[in-house]
Design goal:
The protein has about 240 residues and is α/β, with parallel strands linked by helices. Helices cover about 40% and strands about 15% of the residues. The chain folds into two domains: about 45 residues, no CATH class; about 190 residues, Uracil-DNA glycosylase-like domain (Uracil-DNA Glycosylase, subunit E). The strands form two sheets. The protein has a six-stranded mixed beta sheet, with helices on both faces. It has a three-stranded antiparallel beta sheet with strand order 1-2-3, with no helix packed on it. The longest helix has 19 residues. It binds uracil. Uracil (URA) binds next to helix 5.
Length: about 240
């Protein structure tokens, strides 16, 4: 295995939450022996790399009736994601709101209606035949945070592993991170959206654009940001669909 491939593999497992060193067991079986400083060696089955056998169905099944973090306490429904599982463009928001929590679908409330308008309106104006159903939409956390508060770092880390798997399976041509929480989860950057927006970054090797979250654009005093978000989206759509 090349050094580059090894680095990618280790990053993948780190993103999944594995922090121990591991060694190949002497047998042929896909079993690794984990060694951590304070325990006896433990044998664990590591999951296959996402490209080998992962699928959106399997990720949803692995989430199950998730109780891995405190967000499960107030949720009504887990909101996994919606749209084309082979989309060339994925939008990532922060977490479900009240409407999404009730319907089990991302971005179906007011912010979602604005997002749909932005995608379909911009595509139409730019002559790109694209509807909302042609992209994939999901969130950093899959359960609604109480009072729509910002997800805590541990909640983002736990649920982020499923987002990373979704992105690894879909492997879109570009990702659009909606707002600071998505930017932080995918880029590890803490700057505000005003600083990050409009430029290209990468999540793994996938081009990623940060723009404003539609909820922010719904506030009447943020009309300038609306124009900027439209510009960002135009760039993304041309990049992916030209
Ligand atoms: N806001 C989000 O970040 N995601 C949704 O699904 C809805 C609102």
């Amino acid at each position: 295995m090349s050094a580059e491939k090894l680095r990618e593999t280790l990053e993948f497992y780190r993103d999944l939450g594995f922090t121990s060193l591991y060694q190949r067991a002497p047998s042929e079986a896909p079993v690794r022996e984990t060694v951590s400083a304070d325990s006896e060696p433990v044998r664990i089955e590591l999951p296959e790399l996402a490209p080998a056998g992962d699928s959106l169905q399997r990720i949803r099944a692995d989430i199950g009736d998730c109780k891995r973090c405190r967000l499960h306490e107030g949720r009504h429904t887990i909101v996994f994601g919606s749209g084309d599982g082979e989309a060339r463009l994925v939008f990532v928001g922060e977490g479900p709101g009240a409407d999404e929590d009730m319907q089990g679908l991302p971005f179906v409330g007011r912010a979602g209606q604005l997002l749909t308008q932005m995608i379909e309106g911009t595509a139409k104006r730019e002559g790109i035949p694209l509807e909302r159903k042609d992209v994939y939409i999901c969130n950093v956390v899959k359960c609604r945070p109480p009072e729509n508060r910002t997800p805590e770092p541990d909640e983002m880390e736990i649920c982020g592993q499923f987002l990373f798997r979704q992105l690894s399976v879909i492997r879109p041509g570009a990702i659009c991170a909606l707002g600071a929480t998505a930017a932080r989860a995918l880029l590890g950057r803490k700057e505000g959206v005003t600083r990050l927006r409009g430029n290209w970054y990468k999540w793994r090797d996938i081009p990623l654009m940060v723009t404003y979250h539609p909820s922010y654009l719904l506030r009447p005093y943020n009309q300038n940001a609306k124009r900027e978000a439209w510009e960002d989206l135009k760039k993304v759509l041309h990049f992916v669909y030209d």
